[in-house]
Design a protein that fits this description.
Blueprint (H helix, E strand, L loop, with lengths): L6 E12 L2 E12 L3 E5 L6 H8 L7 E6 L2 E2 L5 H6 L2 E3 L12 H7 L9 H6 L1 H21 L15 H13 L5 E5 L7 H18 L2 E5 L3 H7 L2 E6 L2 E6 L1 H5 L2 H6 L8 H4 L1
Parallel strand pairs: 3-8, 3-9, 6-7, 7-8
Antiparallel strand pairs: 1-2, 1-4, 4-5, 9-10
Helix pairs in contact: 3-6
Length: 266
């Protein structure tokens, strides 16, 4: 478990509506630096919409989002990513018609070659950074056991391998806080366990903080430090996995009112 003592992400009274539907209704939560925090709740609770608001993909109509103390509500997604908060998506966003290695290189941070003036005036720096990015990409692919697929089209990967690719690609951006939207959905158990091991390793070795949405209660209870529960667009509870699993509000909102003993969940 984590001994983090300061907040990396603070979400306060955030609201996001679509027409007459208030998908996120005054949600408030905190993610401590160095922690692994799970966000759970029934379908339609507003979890993915909250991710979209926090990362700039949906408008924050009211409230505050602070990353390491800096207000980022209403910022564009690319500006937020450059501050170190990166996310994956519920449906993988691999570019199927491009090789796996090129999918990785697209996410590399600090590429001077993106500006034409650098290509003309600083060609050595551009080439050096490209070599560095390619080396980083291959190291990450090796860590996720995808190196042999580097030159294959991303569309040829299995669903689980695409999840691994998306996580590896997110790491190319050098995140401090990584948001994962249902990383285990559609993944076979063996690849799912591998994803969870990578998450624990990245927290331990690189100090990356995680916030992840998940319906797999075994993964939530055994791989998170703290659990945040949403229902009807609001955060109704936040606490340790054991405390959350025993709370009547969670049983009502998430388990349909049926009491399930903790030993059956974990």
């Amino acid at each position: 478990m984590t001994d983090a003592s300061r907040s990396m992400l603070e979400v306060r009274d955030v609201t996001c509506s679509f027409g007459g539907l208030r998908a996120v209704d005054g949600a408030t939560l905190t993610v401590e630096e160095g922690s692994i925090t799970a966000l759970i709740g029934p379908n339609g609770a507003g979890k993915t919409t909250l991710f979209n608001v926090v990362t700039g993909f949906c408008p924050c109509q009211r409230g505050s989002v602070r990353l390491s103390g800096r207000e980022i509500a209403r910022w564009a997604p690319h500006r937020i990513a450059r501050l170190g908060m990166v996310r994956t998506f519920q449906l993988t966003k691999a570019l199927s018609a491009m090789p796996v290695i090129d999918n990785m290189l697209l996410a590399a941070a600090d590429q001077p070659g993106e500006r034409l003036v650098n290509v003309v005036l600083r060609p050595r720096a551009v080439r050096a950074r490209e070599r560095e990015a390619r080396e980083q990409a291959r190291e990450l692919l090796a860590a996720f056991r995808l190196e042999r697929h580097a030159d294959e089209y991303a569309g040829t990967l299995s669903g689980g391998q695409r999840k691994l690719l998306e996580l590896a690609r997110a790491l190319m951006a050098r995140p401090r806080l990584l948001l994962l939207d249902e990383p285990l959905a559609g993944v076979n158990p063996s690849l799912g366990r591998e994803l969870l091991r990578h998450m624990q390793r990245l927290r331990a070795e690189d100090g990356i903080t995680f916030l992840f949405i998940e319906h797999d209660m075994e993964a939530v209870m055994n791989h998170s430090d703290r659990v945040v529960v949403m229902a009807e667009g609001r955060v109704i509870l936040s606490g340790s996995p054991r405390a959350v699993a025993a709370d009547e509000r969670v049983i009502d909102a998430y388990l349909g009112g049926k009491h399930v003993p903790l030993e059956e969940i974990v």
